[in-house]
Amino acid sequence: MSPDSTAPTIVQLASFSDTFAAHLAKSQLDAEGIPCFLGNENRPYGPALGAVRLFVRASDVALAQEVLQGQQAPMHAMPPDAPEEATATMPRCPRCHHTDVVCRHLPQPTDNLFVKLRLWLLAPAKPQCHCFTCGLEFEGE
Questions:
Q1: CB–CB of 57/13 below 8 Å?
Q2: Which tens digits make up the pLDDT trace of 85-128?
Q3: At a CB cut-off of 8 Å and minimum separation 6, what does 81 contact?
Q4: Inter-residue contact 63 to 90 (CB < 8 Å)
Q5: Is the pTM of this model over 0.85?
Q6: Quick one: CA dihedral 106, 107, 113, 114, positive or negative?
Q7: At 66, is the secondary structure helix, strand, or coil?
Protein backbone atom coordinates (compact mmCIF):
# COMPACT_ATOMS: atom_id res chain seq x y z
CA MET A 1 0.00 0.00 0.00
CA SER A 2 1.51 3.33 -1.02
CA PRO A 3 1.33 6.38 1.25
CA ASP A 4 -1.33 8.94 0.40
CA SER A 5 0.37 11.94 -1.23
CA THR A 6 -2.47 14.23 -0.11
CA ALA A 7 -2.03 13.42 3.60
CA PRO A 8 -0.66 16.38 5.58
CA THR A 9 2.86 16.17 6.97
CA ILE A 10 2.89 15.97 10.77
CA VAL A 11 5.72 17.70 12.66
CA GLN A 12 6.68 18.09 16.30
CA LEU A 13 5.95 21.62 17.46
CA ALA A 14 7.14 21.45 21.06
CA SER A 15 8.07 19.15 23.91
CA PHE A 16 7.18 19.50 27.59
CA SER A 17 8.64 17.98 30.73
CA ASP A 18 5.23 17.69 32.37
CA THR A 19 1.84 16.57 31.11
CA PHE A 20 -0.04 19.59 32.48
CA ALA A 21 1.94 22.11 30.41
CA ALA A 22 1.49 19.92 27.33
CA HIS A 23 -2.28 19.77 27.82
CA LEU A 24 -2.45 23.53 28.36
CA ALA A 25 -0.65 24.13 25.07
CA LYS A 26 -2.87 21.61 23.29
CA SER A 27 -5.97 23.32 24.71
CA GLN A 28 -4.75 26.71 23.45
CA LEU A 29 -4.27 25.32 19.95
CA ASP A 30 -7.63 23.50 20.04
CA ALA A 31 -9.32 26.77 21.07
CA GLU A 32 -7.82 28.47 18.00
CA GLY A 33 -9.03 25.64 15.74
CA ILE A 34 -5.54 24.25 15.05
CA PRO A 35 -5.63 20.44 14.89
CA CYS A 36 -2.98 18.88 17.14
CA PHE A 37 -2.26 15.83 19.28
CA LEU A 38 0.07 14.78 22.09
CA GLY A 39 2.56 11.93 21.99
CA ASN A 40 4.22 10.12 24.88
CA GLU A 41 1.75 11.56 27.39
CA ASN A 42 1.12 8.36 29.36
CA ARG A 43 4.70 7.90 30.54
CA PRO A 44 4.97 5.64 33.58
CA TYR A 45 8.19 7.22 34.89
CA GLY A 46 7.78 10.87 33.91
CA PRO A 47 10.62 12.75 32.21
CA ALA A 48 13.02 9.82 32.60
CA LEU A 49 11.46 8.25 29.50
CA GLY A 50 11.25 11.40 27.42
CA ALA A 51 9.16 14.50 27.11
CA VAL A 52 5.51 14.86 26.16
CA ARG A 53 5.50 15.95 22.52
CA LEU A 54 2.98 18.21 20.78
CA PHE A 55 2.40 17.57 17.06
CA VAL A 56 0.70 19.73 14.40
CA ARG A 57 0.43 19.76 10.61
CA ALA A 58 3.44 21.31 8.90
CA SER A 59 1.17 23.91 7.32
CA ASP A 60 0.02 25.05 10.79
CA VAL A 61 3.45 25.43 12.43
CA ALA A 62 3.78 29.22 12.07
CA LEU A 63 0.26 29.91 13.33
CA ALA A 64 0.64 27.44 16.23
CA GLN A 65 3.95 29.00 17.29
CA GLU A 66 2.33 32.43 17.23
CA VAL A 67 -0.56 31.22 19.41
CA LEU A 68 1.73 29.57 21.96
CA GLN A 69 4.26 32.42 21.99
CA GLY A 70 1.53 34.92 22.79
CA GLN A 71 0.57 32.94 25.90
CA GLN A 72 4.04 32.76 27.44
CA ALA A 73 4.98 35.35 30.00
CA PRO A 74 8.63 36.36 29.81
CA MET A 75 10.65 35.55 32.92
CA HIS A 76 13.63 37.59 34.04
CA ALA A 77 16.04 37.30 36.95
CA MET A 78 16.69 41.06 36.76
CA PRO A 79 14.62 43.82 35.18
CA PRO A 80 15.84 44.62 31.64
CA ASP A 81 16.61 48.20 32.71
CA ALA A 82 18.67 47.23 35.81
CA PRO A 83 21.64 49.52 36.49
CA GLU A 84 25.10 48.31 35.42
CA GLU A 85 26.45 48.17 38.99
CA ALA A 86 23.62 45.80 40.01
CA THR A 87 24.53 43.30 37.28
CA ALA A 88 28.33 43.50 37.75
CA THR A 89 28.40 40.81 40.46
CA MET A 90 25.72 38.58 38.94
CA PRO A 91 26.63 35.29 37.28
CA ARG A 92 26.82 35.29 33.48
CA CYS A 93 25.64 32.61 31.09
CA PRO A 94 28.61 30.81 29.50
CA ARG A 95 26.73 30.52 26.18
CA CYS A 96 25.21 33.99 25.62
CA HIS A 97 27.07 35.95 28.36
CA HIS A 98 23.81 37.47 29.58
CA THR A 99 23.18 38.27 33.27
CA ASP A 100 19.53 37.18 33.21
CA VAL A 101 20.46 34.07 35.25
CA VAL A 102 19.10 32.41 38.39
CA CYS A 103 21.29 30.05 40.48
CA ARG A 104 20.31 27.84 43.42
CA HIS A 105 21.55 24.89 45.48
CA LEU A 106 18.25 23.36 46.62
CA PRO A 107 15.19 22.13 44.70
CA GLN A 108 12.01 24.18 44.73
CA PRO A 109 8.46 22.78 45.17
CA THR A 110 7.63 23.71 41.56
CA ASP A 111 10.58 21.78 40.06
CA ASN A 112 9.85 18.74 37.94
CA LEU A 113 10.92 15.31 39.18
CA PHE A 114 14.14 15.22 37.14
CA VAL A 115 15.40 18.51 38.58
CA LYS A 116 14.53 17.44 42.14
CA LEU A 117 16.35 14.14 41.75
CA ARG A 118 19.38 15.83 40.23
CA LEU A 119 19.63 18.36 43.06
CA TRP A 120 18.85 15.92 45.90
CA LEU A 121 20.75 12.83 44.80
CA LEU A 122 23.76 14.40 43.22
CA ALA A 123 24.03 17.11 45.89
CA PRO A 124 26.00 19.53 43.73
CA ALA A 125 28.73 21.53 45.41
CA LYS A 126 28.16 24.35 42.93
CA PRO A 127 24.79 26.04 42.42
CA GLN A 128 22.65 24.95 39.48
CA CYS A 129 21.89 27.90 37.20
CA HIS A 130 19.37 28.67 34.47
CA CYS A 131 19.72 31.39 31.80
CA PHE A 132 16.37 32.97 30.91
CA THR A 133 17.78 34.40 27.68
CA CYS A 134 19.00 31.24 25.93
CA GLY A 135 17.60 28.54 28.25
CA LEU A 136 20.97 26.96 29.13
CA GLU A 137 21.21 24.96 32.37
CA PHE A 138 24.74 25.11 33.84
CA GLU A 139 26.73 24.96 37.08
CA GLY A 140 27.52 28.29 38.69
CA GLU A 141 30.61 29.30 40.59
A1: no
A2: 666 677 788 888 887 787 776 666 666 777 777 666 766 667 77
A3: none
A4: no
A5: no
A6: negative
A7: helix
